[in-house]
Amino acid sequence: MKLYEYLAKGRLKAQGIPVPPGVLCRTPDEVAQALDEICPAAVKAQVLVGGRGKAGGIKFATNPEEGRKVASEILGMNLKGYTVEQVYVEGKIDVEREFYVSVTVDRNARKPLIMASSHGGVEIEDVEDKYIVRRHVDEAFGMQGYLARDIAAEMGLEGDIAKQVAVILQKLYEVFRAEDAELVEINPLVVSGGKVIAADARLNIDDAALFRHKDLPTVAEGTELELKVKEIGLAFVQLDGDIAVMANGAGMAMATLDALQHFGGKPANFLDAGGGASVEPTAQAMGVLVSMKPKAIFVNIFGGITRCDDVANAIVQAKQTQGIPVPLVVRLVGTNEQQGVEILRREGIEAFREMSEAAAKAVELAGEVR
Amino acid sequence: MAIIIDQDTRVVVQGMTGNQGSFHTGQMVKYGTNVVAGTSPNKYGQDHDGIPVFASVREAVLERGANASIVFVPAAFAKDAAFEAIDAGCKVVVMIPEHIPVQDSILIVEYARFRGAKVVGPNTYGVISPGKAKMGIMPNHIYAPGPVGLVARSGTLSYEIAAALTQAGLGQSTAIGMGGDPVVGQVFNDILHQFEKDTETKACVLVGEIGGSAEEEAAEFIKTMTKPVVAYLAGRAAPPGKRMGHAGAIIERGRGTLESKRKALEAAGVTVVEMPWEVAPAVKKLLG
């Protein structure tokens, strides 16, 4: 889960990392009031999309009246599909130098990875490799002082600035651990009047660890449909094709999309019905697929823990309650296959055994033969 | 022979009396697995379908000689359970739960390295050496003993391919789920090392996915392998930056793409097939 900028900065500040002064505001009046204290200031839309500045979500103000004016422009605006409900009023700082620092999980080394560069302020992917310092931390033992000093030196920093950056690196690692972060990033980390300050920050929390962070406000991300399926408890991603798909297991669901594409079809979604889903959520998921108004629906099940008769009953339930007004292709093999096939046959649905034949048929019925 | 587990593996089930633990213990026993003990924080001191339930893995090791653990406890308690099993001396720990915090997984993997234990998963369907033993939640009937070493990230997709192999008369030495999480214990590389040494294994099947670079790393080792490898990679139709259910299956920042994996594997001499149903015929051809 991504955190809003103001929350991320709050977490950094709590760990002792210097951040610019800032206040969260919901109305133009609050913004004007904030500018009495913090001036000049940047008024920043609190939305979880990149490129806010270019899209008009960040504006500057040098007095309370100007603050009120820009706030009324930003609050309520639609920023890449998200309505701006809050702005963060933050003291403007004079930037002398910009750095990049982050801590993330290196899934290959299976260790936390610190990345740092004295070339900050841009996307780290655009920085040449030779300018990026990369060092791993043994999580069991934690980050030691020498490592932070080493990294600052490798960044080419000296004197007091190097010392400040080293302290910030250690504190950043503490944020990473304390917050169960997948990523904590300061970009840019700036030098302003001899002080090193976190000018912008990103903090992504591991969804699986949210049970340890109940104080965090949850921010729902995704399209309306995605959120609806999430409520049923299934993994769902909306795509831009027209064959709606349900499969069991994430790998199987991906392979199903691949198979449709292989025969020239365009999948409308990714839906993992889970390895053992029961009738009710599966029927609800079918309902979601129908509501997408696809050209065809393809259900691809290899029953291991999932029982084919459960899936068949879910399909029948969806058909009887809301109807399935588009061509439906079902591939059903595995546990209780015979019962499942019989249940569908009584409803006039002939299940396939082979994934390849079924995928080809779904593409054909959607009128997309290559 | 087989890898990781066989008929001599003595299994303790952590969280045996829960819904999942109880059902799958039954399935494992049915398959002939030597399940010697279970643990439960509340129901210790009794028998569960004839298997003694203990309060700790340490007791299961001391009293029943358990040497491998399968974990069914809720994700929030999984780190503790894994540490307990490793500390008690289990050399194999199979982690079934999904949604374990990634920083917990990092610590589990570090501790396992430190103590010389093998962690399978988390978020895995487990490991099965057909005809000998299974530690996992895979269906029993789709496997058969034979020469193919199968390693996959994903459960159902792996079942699909195992069933096709079996149907084609190609049994498996061991089939193992690496797990769908970003951080897991045994990765393709570790598993292929063991298949290369295993006398029963004659060919390997690798079922990969977009995201991470475990496939690319495996390719480095495959260059030195004597046994043929067939690979299928899922996720070519997945758009970048979208999470496809598995926390692992996400393409970010241009890394972990299907193309980079395919190129690395092909350069290592792997037969990379386009679709899952092409795996079994490709293996058949290689084994002659």
Can you summarize this structure?
Chain A contains eleven helices and 17 strands. Chain A has helices at 5-14, 28-37, 64-74, 145-154, 159-178, 224-232, 250-262, 279-291, 308-321, 337-346, 355-365, and strands at residues 22-25, 41-45, 58-61, 78-79, 82-83, 87-91, 97-106, 111-117, 133-136, 181-192, 195-198, 201-205, 235-238, 243-247, 269-272, 296-303, 328-334. In chain A, the strands form five sheets. In chain A, strands 7, 8, 9, 10, 11 and 12 form a six-stranded antiparallel beta sheet that branches.
Do you know the CATH architecture of the largest domain in chain B?
A: 3-Layer(aba) Sandwich
Oligomer: heterodimer
Which outline of chain A best applies?
Answer: elongated
How is the main sheet of chain B built? 7 strands, mixed
Radius of gyration of chain B: 18 Å
Sheet/helix structural class of chain B:
alpha/beta
- Could you tell me the CATH topology label of the largest domain in chain A: Rossmann fold
Give a structural overview.
The complex is a heterodimer of chains A (370) and B (288). Chain A is an alpha+beta fold and 370 residues long. In chain A, α6 packs antiparallel against α8 and α9 packs parallel to α10. The two termini of chain A are 40 Å apart. Chain A is 35% helix and 25% strand. Helices cover 33% and strands 22% of the residues of chain B. In chain B, the strands form two sheets. Chain B has a seven-stranded mixed sheet, sandwiched between helices. A seven-stranded mixed sheet of chain B has the order 9-8-11-10-12-13-14, with helices on both faces. In chain B, β10, α5 and β11 form a beta-alpha-beta unit. Chain B starts with 10 loop residues before the first strand and ends with a helix. In chain B, 60% of the residues are buried. Chains A and B meet through α7 of A and α4 and α5 of B.
Structure keywords:
heterodimer; A: 370 residues; alpha+beta; Dna Ligase, domain 1; Rossmann fold; 3 domains; four-stranded antiparallel beta sheet; elongated; B: 288 residues; seven-stranded mixed beta sheet; 33% helix
